[in-house]
Each structure stands twice: as C-alpha cells, then as structure tokens.
Design a protein that fits this description.
By secondary structure, the chain is α+β, with helices and mostly antiparallel strands. 30% of the residues lie in helices and 20% in strands.
Length: 88
C-alpha cells in the first residue's frame, strides 16, 4: 500500500514538472526606464538596464558598440497609496 502511494506521488510530480513551460530569463529590468543594448558580435548582444535617462545611458555607451533604448517593460514610479481623510 505504501509503495503504491509513493508511486502515485512520483507520477503526479513527474506529470506536473513535464507540463510546466520552460523558464526564461527576463531581459529587461522593470525598475529602470532606459536600457543599453550592447552588441558582442553580428547577432549576439546583451542588455544592461540600469539607467534613469537617455543621456546617462549615452555617456556609458560612448565608444562601445551599443545603443540606448527605452525600456518597454518599465513599471513607472511606485505609486503611493492615498490615505483616506477621516472626518470626525
């Protein structure tokens, strides 16, 4: 009985793992509005998202095979919750 239960859990775990989509790395950091695309070869590149403005990114990209782009996944500044004013 114990072996059947263990086999059932193992089969369930295998079925769950095999149906999950593959994990993908996030290319853009949603905390920063500007990213720099740095080219390493003809088609190979990587992204550096850590810039708050286009001029800041352009200063870093100067002299490199890179270009600055606006981050399409920028979440914007955090919005503060508005406190409800209490009337007594």
């Amino acid at each position: 009985m114990r072996i059947q239960t263990l086999a059932g859990f193992a089969a369930l775990a295998i079925a769950t793992v095999s149906t999950m989509p593959p994990a993908q790395a996030q290319m853009y950091d949603p905390k920063y509005p500007v990213c720099m695309k740095v080219y390493q070869g003809y088609v190979d590149f990587y992204m550096e998202c850590g810039f708050t403005s286009i001029p800041q990114c352009q200063m870093s990209a100067s002299g490199r095979n890179a270009q600055c782009i606006v981050n399409p996944y920028y979440a914007g500044p955090r919005q503060r919750k508005q406190r409800r004013q209490r009337y007594y």
